[in-house]
Specification:
The chain contains eight helices and 26 strands. With 408 residues, it is an alpha/beta fold. The strands form seven sheets. Strands 7-4-6-5-9-8 form a six-stranded mixed β-sheet. A six-stranded mixed β-sheet has the order 16-13-17-21-20-18, with helices on both faces. A five-stranded mixed barrel has the order 22-24-23-25-26. Helix 1 runs parallel beside helix 7 and helix 4 packs parallel to helix 7. It starts with 10 loop residues before the first helix and ends in a 6-residue tail after the last strand. Bound molecules: adenosine monophosphate (AMP) and magnesium ion (MG). Magnesium ion binds next to loops.
Length: 408
């Protein structure tokens, strides 16, 4: 991979390197539609019927045959068609049919004239406009043709897909089982929330961020808690995760501090690469294979852990889960204030994107230290600054990436 003289690995190389090794690992099952919300489709879905299933009216008005309108005389209303109650009577020459939105148009209808373009005198209807053939008729199959592909395998089912599938009468769908992901935090200094802190302790916060993001991805999370910097306990936790999950995500212990046993253990248990990524925040990162499960080792610094998960682990887990992944849109915005930046790493600074009088504007959330939580919690976007870019002056255009699903 593309290590340069800095010894730092570009983000895109790290991503490509990981994705090339990963494959979907989740079996499929058939679930009733309401239970499939949040799951990933295991197969393409073809429509079993045409939508709409019959020619119907797009307006409240009158169904007409154009030949009856020649001469401009009023037409006599022959009867009424409602949604769910088609008109089934005779339709003699010189007549029209009162029709409501969604009602099937009677056979022979050339157009529907909206009621605002007519005048009714009892059942004598005068037409104030000349209809165009086909006007206000929604044709059978106009939205979806029978047999057409409507959703691709790999689509995660959201509120947007549920009514579409229901409109096709699909009562159950083939979906992948959720990816099972074990997580733990490493560090002697970490204490669980809800317990008192001794001097030198901090609360384990990363696990709650990682759990929230896994939840957003629809993964099943096996939370193994906090594991101290102790080789025996770490080894037991790695082996448990490897037995029970498809992937393991840890935070902390992948830098080169003295208490970082993870490297040693992982090299013994599996094939793990320890990378120094050319991104900020988030330099140290580990990726590889335990005997059964994939391993992702995130940096301990809280903001680094969140950003590396979002940028690197998310696409990797999506691939394992069989889910199609699309990166969030990147936009251009005006820097409303100067931004500090040293060349050397690709920065994901945390910014606040707003709509200014001349378009999108972005400001920094302040300190970009990877231990400063508020830099993330106050932000609504990344300010993405290329590796070789130096400081940015106010008024320059920068690339921003509004936070995607995981961080919302
Ligand atoms: P490490 O990567 O283990 O060297 O940790 C780097 C920094 O992140 C240290 O200041 C740790 O105390 C902190 N840290 C590590 N894990 C966590 C965690 N789970 N929650 C909050 N801070 C952490
Ligand atoms: Mg540590």
């Amino acid at each position: 991979m593309g290590l340069d003289t800095s010894g730092l690995l570009p983000l895109s190389d790290a991503l490509q390197g990981m994705l090339a090794q990963l494959d979907g690992c989740c079996d499929s099952e058939q679930l009733p539609l309401p239970e499939a919300l949040g799951r990933v489709l295991a197969m393409d879905i073809a429509s079993p019927l045409s939508v709409p299933p019959f020619d119907n009216s797009a307006m409240d008005g009158y169904a007409v045959r154009l030949a009856d309108l020649v001469g401009g005389a009023p037409l006599i209303m022959a009867g009424k068609a409602f949604a769910g109650q088609p008109y089934q009577g005779e339709w003699p020459a010189g007549h029209c049919v009162r029709i409501m939105t969604g009602a099937p148009v009677p056979a022979g209808t050339d157009a529907v004239v909206m009621q605002e373009e007519t005048q009714a005198d009892g059942d004598r209807i005068t037409f104030l406009t000349t209809p165009v053939p086909g006007q206000n008729i929604r044709r059978r199959g106009e939205d979806i043709r029978e047999g057409a592909s409507v959703l691709a395998a790999g689509t995660r089912l959201t509120a947007r897909e549920m009514p579409l599938l229901a409109s096709l009468g699909i009562a159950s769908v083939p979906v992948r089982r959720p990816l099972k992901v074990a997580i733990f935090s490493t560090g002697d200094e970490l204490k669980p929330i809800g317990t008192p802190l001794a001097h030198g302790d901090i609360y384990d916060s990363n696990r709650y961020g990682v759990r929230a993001m896994l939840d957003r991805m629809g993964c099943d999370c096996l939370d193994l808690g906090i594991i101290p910097d102790d080789p025996a306990q770490l080894r037991a936790a790695f082996l448990k995760a490897d037995r029970e999950a498809d992937a393991l995500i840890t935070t902390g212990g992948v830098s080169v501090g003295e208490a970082d046993f993870t490297k040693q253990l992982l090299e013994e248990l599996g094939e793990i690469g320890f990378w120094k990524l050319a991104i900020k925040p988030g330099k140290p990162f580990a990726f590889g294979r335990l005997p059964h499960a994939w391993f992702f080792g995130l940096p301990g610094n809280p903001v680094s852990a969140m950003v590396t998960f979002d940028q690197l682990v998310q696409p990797a887990l999506a691939k394992l889960a069989g889910q199609r992944f699309e990166r969030p849109l990147q936009l251009q915005a005006i820097a409303a204030e100067p931004l500090k930046k040293a060349p050397g790493r690709l920065d994901f600074q945390r910014g606040i994107l707003t709509q200014g009088p001349n378009g999108l504007e972005v400001r920094s959330t302040g300190s970009q230290d990877s231990a400063v939580f508020s830099s993330l919690s106050r932000a609504n976007c990344y300010i993405v600054l290329e590796r070789e870019q130096g400081r940015v002056a106010a008024g320059e255009t920068v690339t921003v990436e509004p936070f995607g699903g995981l961080l919302l």
